[in-house]
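Thread: Newbie trying to understand structure tokens

Hi all, I'm a second-year student working on a class project, and my supervisor (Dr. K.) asked me to get a predicted structure for one chain before our next meeting. I've only ever worked with sequences, so writing a 3D structure as a token string is new to me. If someone could post the tokens and maybe explain what I'm looking at, I'd be very grateful. Here's the chain:
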Amino acid sequence: MHRLSYVNAILIQSRGRRLAVPCTRCRSGQGRLVFPECRQVPGAFGGACANCKWPDKASQCSVRDEFWHSLDGLREGSRMGGGGRHTRSLGSSQDNPINVDAEIIDLDEPINLDPEEGDHPNDPINLDPEENEEWPEIE
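---
Reply by user tm_fold:
Sure, no problem. This is what the structure looks like when written as tokens:
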């Protein structure tokens, strides 16, 4: 066992749940099925079953988590000439910057660490416990 996908597939098969409706590949017997049951671990390896993960075909598994299916739809739209939504990460280009609202955050204003100079008396962070009783009990 040299491939990492083999180890991951064994983890999925040993710890995963058996699916009531197997993936398309397991149902059809397509390719060489290593495991007798179609099992998956939701949230791990995109939700692909062990039989699809074994040969590194997890992206083609029909039982993957919903999150991954929605990403495939976005990718398909961009391949087909813009039929689907195409999103870019914030800050990935000058056209899509990360904006810091100057009215909310004043970058020139220092953070006040001295509780005597204007911190709200009900502030849950007590930076000087000797002035305001003692440290709270943690249970």
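A couple of things are worth pointing out once you decode it. The chain is about 25% helix and 5% strand. The two ends are 48 Å apart (CA to CA). Feel free to ask follow-ups in this thread.
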